[in-house]
């Protein structure tokens, strides 16, 4: 285990809410401050710690895939450029919901619950009520709280935060942060579909060992790991064809194979498999083998995802909401109006939004032919005009070539009866 791994393990075992520092880690684990600093930054990326100005770095509850939309109070401090006046012991806690204190104090009582965050201005009664009821307080406008409010925050272990922004801005920032997390939650990750504890070969294995594993598992592609469990290669049928059983796997394996991490989006892994012409990718963390993802795993994930409603909107969905899709003999036809979400800074639909619609039309054309797992390979477009806001437009996507592994589609955009744009898109088919 490397020094970096030891520090990460040490941080994971710390009690949530514990404060840590570079100097403390360096002294306790007998490592350099540079090594400790890099490990803390890595722990921050993993969601293990949060660093707050004038407070320091604290161990926080690691957010998992099921709870990703929840922010900790420590994260709120950072995103609103705030500072902590009291209740630092509770910074690691996740907030359940936030509410704005724009009502009479007596009315607030029925809405505040333990674990909430009350966003309020310089209103002492509201601040005291929230803390008494076990909820944190974010004071807007840069105001400071009175000493007795700070003491109550420390006593309850609930954060008392101040931010220079007004109430509306603070609420918008927090809401956007939660929305961003919801988008991330929608993304299917490799960890969601990978095969855990996969079959693999030790670096000391031979071609004979590979053949035994093939007979036992009916698989033909295996990662190769060293004594520390780190992936150092991958071996397939092509590597060992016609070789004798005693030949070492190290001599024939593909060294330094393409790998992905557990948080990698499945779509990216699928793109790698298509572009690199491979069927299996090892999933690693700190170089150690966690699992494998195959082309078929990615296909199943895409098919499952296509049947599920999305809980958060993306740019694609916002643009495609403006169109109705109709199946045609050669592909699809989209009909709709340009909307405000498509506007450029100059008040007309931007070329980028129109290209987005053209690409999605092309993808929908292949989906209409029961080829749902396609990846755009190239896209060439020519514009010969422009369209206005709220203008009726039509997009026709006609497939001109479709094969087992690739295809081409011609896409045209018509507005006001005139041809506005024409494009040719080629795609790679992930598989069946």
Automatic annotation (TrEMBL):
EC number(s) per entry: 3.6.1.1
Coiled-coil blocks: none
SUPFAM superfamilies: CBS-domain pair (SSF54631), HprK N-terminal domain-like (SSF75138), Thioesterase/thiol ester dehydrase-isomerase (SSF54637), Winged helix' DNA-binding domain (SSF46785)
Alphabetical list of Pfam families matching this protein: CBS, DRTGG
Keyword terms of this UniProt record: CBS domain, Hydrolase
Domain CBS: 194-252, 253-313
PROSITE patterns: CBS
GO MF annotation list: inorganic diphosphate phosphatase activity
InterPro entries cross-referenced by the UniProt entry: CBS_dom, CBS_dom_sf, Diverse_CBS-Domain, DRTGG, HotDog_dom_sf, Ser_kin/Pase_Hpr-like_N_sf, WH-like_DNA-bd_sf, WH_DNA-bd_sf
Name this protein carries in UniProt: Cobalt-dependent inorganic pyrophosphatase
Protein source organism: Fervidicola ferrireducens
């Amino acid at each position: 285990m490397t020094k970096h791994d030891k520090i990460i393990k040490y941080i994971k075992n710390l009690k949530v809410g514990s404060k840590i520092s570079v100097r403390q880690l360096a002294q306790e684990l007998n490592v350099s401050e540079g090594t400790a600093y890099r490990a803390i930054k890595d722990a921050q990326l993993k969601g293990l710690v949060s660093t707050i100005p004038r407070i320091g770095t604290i161990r926080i509850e690691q957010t998992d895939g099921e709870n990703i939309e929840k922010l900790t109070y420590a994260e709120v401090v950072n995103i609103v450029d705030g500072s902590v006046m009291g209740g630092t012991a509770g910074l690691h806690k996740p907030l359940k919901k936030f509410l704005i204190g724009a009502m009479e104090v007596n009315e607030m009582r029925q809405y505040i619950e333990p674990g909430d965050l009350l966003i309020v201005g310089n209103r002492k009664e509201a601040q005291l009520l929230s803390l008494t009821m076990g909820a944190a307080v974010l004071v807007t406008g840069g105001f400071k709280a009175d000493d007795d409010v700070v003491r109550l925050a420390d006593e309850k272990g609930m954060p008392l935060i101040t931010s220079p922004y007004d109430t509306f801005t603070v609420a918008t920032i927090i809401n956007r942060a939660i929305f961003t997390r919801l988008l991330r939650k929608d993304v299917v990750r490799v960890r969601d579909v990978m095969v855990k504890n996969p079959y693999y070969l030790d670096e000391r294995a031979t071609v004979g060992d590979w053949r035994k594993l093939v007979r036992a598992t009916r698989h033909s592609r295996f990662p190769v790991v060293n004594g520390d469990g780190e992936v150092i290669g991958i071996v397939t049928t092509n590597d060992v064809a016609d070789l004798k059983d005693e030949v070492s796997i190290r001599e024939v394996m593909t060294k330094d194979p393409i790998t992905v991490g557990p948080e990698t989006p499945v779509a990216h892994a699928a793109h790698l498999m298509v572009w690199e012409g491979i069927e299996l990718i090892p999933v690693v963390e700190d170089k150690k083998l966690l699992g494998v993802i195959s082309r078929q795993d990615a296909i199943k994930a895409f098919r499952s995802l296509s049947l599920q409603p999305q809980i958060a909107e993306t740019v694609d969905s916002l643009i495609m909401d403006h169109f109705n899709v109709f199946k045609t003999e050669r592909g699809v036809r989209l009909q709709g109006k340009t909307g405000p979400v498509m506007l450029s800074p100059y008040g007309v639909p931007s070329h980028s939004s129109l290209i987005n619609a053209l690409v999605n039309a092309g993808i929908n054309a292949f989906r209409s032919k029961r080829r749902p797992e396609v990846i755009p390979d190239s896209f060439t477009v020519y514009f010969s005009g422009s369209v206005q806001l709220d203008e009726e437009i039509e997009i026709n996507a006609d497939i001109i070539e479709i094969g087992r592994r690739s295809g081409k589609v011609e896409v045209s955009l018509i507005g006001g009866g005139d041809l506005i744009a024409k494009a040719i898109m080629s795609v790679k088919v992930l598989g069946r």
